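The protein record filed below.
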Amino acid sequence: MLKTLRNMLTIYDKGLIVLIILITLSGIGWSFLHFVNSDAKYVVIEHNNQVVSKIRLVDGLEKKIPLDLSSGKAEIVIKEGKVRILEMPKEVCPLGICSDTGWISRAGEMVVCMPNKIVVAIKSKGVSQEPDAVVY
């Protein structure tokens, strides 16, 4: 059966089959390379609506980021792929909700300190920042 099929195919048919296979393989390769780092997570630290720092979360990264505020100092800690705001004195952050939030580690999570206008958010390269649905 294969011998009869080979005899029926012309050189152009064989070339077309090879071309289709090459296009398919290159599409698979491109999609693999394009989406291989889609889960990369970043910590974005904002103060007074300005981005202070943007750091990629990787295993083994340990970093303390100090922020000078008008009423004192704040410190943000990155450790083992998680982020948090350390506790601040009551004069700087009266309720301390931001430090009570604790560690965040997933894309979309954030810690907000309203009195000091600090936002610490984890964003992902592969996740759309648009809402899935809006219900009225």
Q: What stands out?
A: The first helix runs from residue 2 to 8. Strands lie at 41-47, 50-56, 62-68, 73-79, 82-85, 110-113, 118-124.
